[in-house]
Specification:
By secondary structure, the protein is of the alpha+beta class. The chain contains three helices and seven strands, in the order ααβββββββα.
């Protein structure tokens, strides 16, 4: 189990990133979009069950290795940010209106996609985190949200 201080730190970062504003994408429990087994495949390690994150706008799965995690979040499109100056920044084609990925400072990857109703973000941290599995996850989030799974 990931140490409590890490969970609190991650949660606070997401809350501050959200900006404490009430504008968000249509309410949807993102934890229901993926099983622990699906996330485990992307992370390459066993994970705990998904739990609500970022004031209910996201879901997070912590790796049982206590070093890996995945977070997905969907907020209103007004929260779209595009850090083109980020080291390793690469646009993602054929995903939403605009999308990108870049390495995360914690040793993983981040991706964000802008759709008509949401800014979707994904973070995968861990030894097996890759740009490819991060893009796969964000594509799946967008598709499953659209289907209302």
């Amino acid at each position: 189990m990931m140490p409590t201080i890490c969970r609190v730190s991650i949660g606070l970062c997401l809350v501050f990133a959200l900006g404490w504003a009430p504008v968000q994408a249509a309410s949807q429990n993102l934890c229901t979009l993926f099983t622990a087994n699906e996330v485990q495949t992307l992370l390459g390690t066993a994970v705990e069950s998904g739990e609500a994150a970022a004031m209910g706008t996201g879901c997070q799965w912590f790796g049982k290795d206590e070093q890996s995690y995945a977070i997905i979040q969907a907020v209103g499109p007004d929260f779209w940010v595009d850090p083109q100056q980020a080291s390793g920044y690469e646009p993602i084609s054929k995903l939403g209106q605009r999308a990108y990925s870049h390495p995360d400072l914690e040793g993983g990857w981040r991706a964000m996609a802008l759709t008509s109703d949401a800014a979707i973000s994904v973070v995968i941290i861990g030894k097996t985190a890759t740009r490819s599995n991060t893009i796969s996850l964000i594509r799946q989030v967008q598709e499953r949200r659209a289907k209302g799974k």
